[in-house]
Structure prediction request, 320 residues.
Amino acid sequence: MNPIARIGFLLKGEYSDTEMYEYMDIVYYNGASYVAKKQTIGNIPVRENEYWMIFAEGDSSSNISDKKIIFEQASEREHIESGEKLPVILGKIKKWLVDLKTVAFSGNYGDLSNKPDLKTVATTGSYTDLSNKPTIPTVPASLKNPQALTFTGGVTGSYDGSVAKTVKIPSGTNSLLANVAGTWLDAIQGAVLKRLHDDNASKITQINSDLLSLSSAKVITMNPNTEWIKAGYVSCFKIAGRYIFQFSEVSFVKDGNFGNGSGLLWTMGDAGPGYERVFLLYPILNTEYPIRLVIKGNKIYGHYTDAKANNLDYFGMLIV
Prediction:
């Protein structure tokens, strides 16, 4: 019953669930003010019920980090919904957490209740531990292979497993001179091939030895005759008694024929034996007219074989 003497509101401060509130008492709870509609204790203020009604809305953005939120555990597990009050949401969450079993946090099979009985096959994985094993049918002889087999080469054909098939295996030969198609070389010829290999290896070894003996080349100094040689040079090497000349970018002072006699072109730094050899060189830029070189002692002479030949700028290699 409301008191007769109450003529105005009475501010009671922060709501407490242990304090008795009278008609027209005003409390502050969760950012809003509520006014008591009748005497009450332990009933949480809400927007509208038989004990309370909203008196002043709070700021929805108010910080509630320091507020004490009073809520009750929900009676059933239900999903939280958008727009629900915080005490309702927390009550639903608490119900879910309370109903969780130990296995939800440990993940241990041993924490399960009403665990099923595992059969032996679950741990061995062996087919023989199965109960009610299915009968595996016998593969009939008429069953075809899943993929065809094709033969190529000397004998061609295909095989699908449905009919008997004869395959001819080619014969071998022990003759290195055999030339019959589809015949393979008999393994007995391996010894023959090995001997050939060994013989050739011996010959190759000898060739390598001969090449090594030629590795000591003697460089011969070549002195040009400026009366005839305008530009260019000659490289000369003496290897195993043979002379190798390399004529590079050579041009002459005089055009045309060297004259009735032979013009002296180069002098070799090594006098060498007394000999006379004649060679023909074709210039790279003019292959129509060759030049004849004559080697006498340690001197090289040259003249054109045709008086119409012009100046020659390049020469190839000469091996004597």
Notes: The longest helix spans residues 190-213.
